[in-house]
Amino acid sequence: MKLIIEILRQRDSASEPYRQKISYEAPPEDTVATLLSKLNREQELTDMTGKPVGRIEWQCSCLQKKCGSCAMRVNGVPRLACDTKLSECKSGKLLLEPLRKFPTVCDLVVDRSVMMTHLLSIHNWLEQSAHHTGKALELCYDASRCLQCGCCLEVCPNFFAEGDFYGAAAFVPASRVLSQLRREQPQDLSEFYRRNVYNGCGKSLSCRDICPAGIDIEQKLATSNAVAVWKRYFKK
Ligand code: SF4
Ligand code: SF4
Ligand code: FES
Is domain 2-110 classified as CATH 3.10.20.30? Predict the structure, then answer.
């Protein structure tokens, strides 16, 4: 299929971003990730004004929807490049931009380290050993599929990298620990949860609808609220 690809490019974090348009033919079954790899392998690729196209920087690792590193905005929607087929782009116009809620490093690469900083800061661990059983086990398994891709934060109206609200990328992993918490255990995570999630979440659930892993985010929010806010602990 014939594509007009527009990429929001930026040489480094200090440079001005600019848009580059490329005309290219690719099979519809290719993914955006495959397309970017092919573009970078072309020896003499030019943009639509005839200027040479330099290497397009983007991130990937697994290419199997497992690592989250290839998240970017595809036609305005946060998606995984390795999980987005070109056939979905019916108009033939493909707009690729970096996620906007994180600082741009270069081209389609952003610095998502704030998600890790948040997970460390909320004390997302248990001080004592625990056993997963029943409903808590199912919840933990589902939550463990979080890729830390940041797509949920991209669509969240209340998340900003410098803000105090940590969003689904924090409360989904936190729900694993909260579901195993007992009344007699240290409650640091519950306090952080109330301050950095519960108090800032508007419950619009845009995060649920965008998650590329299909995690039941509403369930993680409801069960975490039950433990951290209403002190309703899971049965052992
Ligand atoms: S909850 Fe979903 S959208 Fe958010 S970081 Fe995890 S996998 Fe990505
Ligand atoms: S429910 Fe709404 S406010 Fe809360 S984390 Fe999801 S998108 Fe953000
Ligand atoms: S490269 Fe790992 S999720 Fe896309």
Answer: yes
Tell how far the Cα of 141 is from the centroid of ligand 3, in angstroms: 20
Q: 124: CA distance to ligand 1 center in Å?
A: 16
Give me the residue spans of the domains in the chain: 2-110, 113-228
Nearest in space to 73 (alpha carbons), one of 6, 131, 119: 6
Does residue 86 sit in helix, strand or coil?
A: helix
For the CA of 220, the nearest ligand = 1
On whether the 113-228 domain is CATH 1.10.1060.10, my answer is yes
Q: What is the pLDDT of residues 16-59, one digit of tens each?
A: 999 999 999 999 999 999 999 999 999 999 999 999 999 999 99
* Beta carbon of 19 within 6 Å of any ligand 3 atom: no
Does this model's pTM top 0.85? yes
**pLDDT tens for each residue of 184-199:** 777 889 999 999 999 9
Q: Give start and end residues of each alpha helix (H) in the chain.
A: 32-41, 113-121, 134-143, 151-155, 168-178, 188-193, 206-210, 217-228
168 lines ligand 1 (CB under 6 A): yes
Q: Is 149 in the pocket of ligand 1 (CB under 6 A)?
A: yes
Q: Taking phi first (over 0 means left), then psi (-120 to 50 degrees means alpha), and beta for anything else, what does residue 62 get?
A: alpha
Amino acid making up residue 202: G
